[in-house]
């Protein structure tokens, strides 16, 4: 693989970096696309810095692979994609903030709407900008109680959309709260409410082109939830929450896109009963060789991995010892041949015989892979492998 020149010089100043495999990202996209074809269009979710992978670079790779839709959180994320040359449709999944409406229209972003104010602001901005049509997706709260219009709030909103001069409803969508729980009655209840909302729109003479409620878990487990548009997020980056029904697992054959690496920058031999790191949280049971790594919780390595996690050194596992600190983590490389200053260390990724994933970190840290990936800070340079 070739490596882009972006950030490599910075990475050499502090040898901690992440590698993002664009071919793997594209393969994951194809896996999802083929899984739902021809029933549904795929909206590639690249919000939150593409789950820590780099939104613009990932969106560019996905657009070259044929992605036509991209999902982001807010106006600023949409503008970053436009500034990065993304020409496809960009869905603002949590709508827009007051005052953003002209930016939304000028940059042809597609906002979620669920309040009268959203529609009114877009109508006035379209008048000022002399724009004939502003496409929107109506967000419906089907049971998550977070964002969106409740069923009872839909009649006046649908009436406004029916008579709006400039705002055009292009889609209706919602979000599942428990899609990974395949047998959950909540999923069926949410799908029923969603169908009711779609029926109400049709009764008002509205015919949205796109209907969507399925996230990664629903893509894997609930074909009936696909409608004609799906929103994979974590699956694009090689992960998914486990989904099981009657002892049978449901998953998509996707692979992790991101590897996280560093290098040993200091080594020391210590004796038995030596307290290691802050608070002396680890005491060596015997003589040990301890390597210091230039990575810590400021880079996104969870402090919950203190004396619990491990890394890969020379195709062997090396345990983290003591507390993960802000900038430095200590690992025990006793008995690992070739562990020297400058030796490459894998934090996330795989060697010939060893593997550590974001899901492994999540289990130890009591969280989910999403948080592990999103928490890799921007001080960790990304290298894009092509």
Structural class: alpha/beta
Label the overall shape. Answer: elongated
Average pLDDT taken over every residue: 94
Rg on CA atoms, Å? 24 Å
Tell me the major beta sheet.
8 strands, parallel
Q: State the name of the first-level CATH class of the largest domain.
A: Alpha Beta
Query: Unreliable runs, pLDDT <50, ≥5 residues?
Result: 4-11
| Count of separate structural domains | 2
Helix content: 25-40%
CATH superfamily of the largest domain: Alanine racemase
Our estimate of the beta-strand percent is: 15-25%
Specify the oligomeric state.
Answer: single chain
Note the gap between the termini.
6 Å
The CATH architecture classification of the largest domain is Alpha-Beta Barrel
Helix tally? 12
The CATH topology annotation of the largest domain reads as TIM Barrel
Question: What can you tell me about this protein's structure?
Answer:
With 386 residues, the protein is an alpha/beta fold. It has two domains: 209 residues, TIM Barrel, CATH 3.20.20.10; 128 residues, Beta Barrel (Lyase, Ornithine Decarboxylase, Chain A, domain 1). Helix content is 30%, strand content 24%. The chain is built from twelve helices and 22 strands. Strands 8-7-6-5-4-3-2-9 form an eight-stranded parallel beta sheet. Strands 1, 12, 17, 18, 20, 21 and 22 form a seven-stranded mixed beta sheet that branches. A three-stranded antiparallel beta sheet has the order 13-16-19, with no helix packed on it. Helix 5 links the parallel strand 3 and strand 4. The longest helix has 19 residues. The chain is elongated and about 80 Å long. 45% of the residues are buried.
